[in-house]
Amino acid sequence: MIERILEYDRSLFVTLNGLNSDFFDGIMVFASGKLTWIPLYLFMLFMLFYRKGGGSMCRAGAYDFRKGFLFLAGAIAVFAISDAVSFQIKNIVCRPRPCHEPSMEGIVRLLEGSGGEYGFYSSHAANVFAIAVFTMHYVKRRWYSVIVLFWAILVSYSRIYVGKHYPLDVVTGAIAGIAAAWVVIAVIDMLIRKTKILEQ
User: Fold this and answer.
1) Residue 58 has pLDDT above 50, yes or no
2) Cα 76 from Cα 99, distance rounded (Å)
3) What is the rounded distance in angstroms from the CA atom of residue 43 to the CA atom of residue 155?
4) Three-state SS at 146
5) CA distance 37 to 184
6) pTM, whole model, 2 decimals?
7) What is the tens place of the pLDDT at every residue in 97-148?
8) C-alpha to C-alpha distances, 138 to 18, 92, 116, nearest whole angstrom
């Protein structure tokens, strides 16, 4: 059963990794970069501090620093937990990345460095979905949710496209990231209820 799932996974990887063009090659390498999304991270930080219903962004009182610093601490915790767990799982499962799998030699289109030996599950997918879900929960704006979900999906898919992860690596990473986000959300919401830290 497991071997059949892995075979389907490899087959789907070959299909998705092979959907290439010169135009999308550049986009996917860009999307997969660690430093690419710093402006988006700064925007997320702004949205965590900005108070909904505070009026003009330039008006006094438009920022809620108590809320912002609490949610910033939560976002850092989400990222740290997601990244640390994915690193440990990689070294427990020991599933080679496609580019390190002998049976995939000559098949994988690798568009960037090969990275570490093991790829299950994707840290990129876990981290971006963890941050996306965490910030969506507190920002609570539909347009924001659309933007960060598109970002998380794009980054996750780019890991398959550039040849670094199988689809199962990415899907599992996304699920793990969402789970990490909800654990931290539950802790923060409990803290809010017990301490009433955000009451005006």
Assistant:
1) no
2) 31
3) 17
4) helix
5) 23
6) 0.88
7) 998 888 888 889 988 887 888 999 999 999 999 999 999 999 989 999 999 9
8) 38, 33, 34
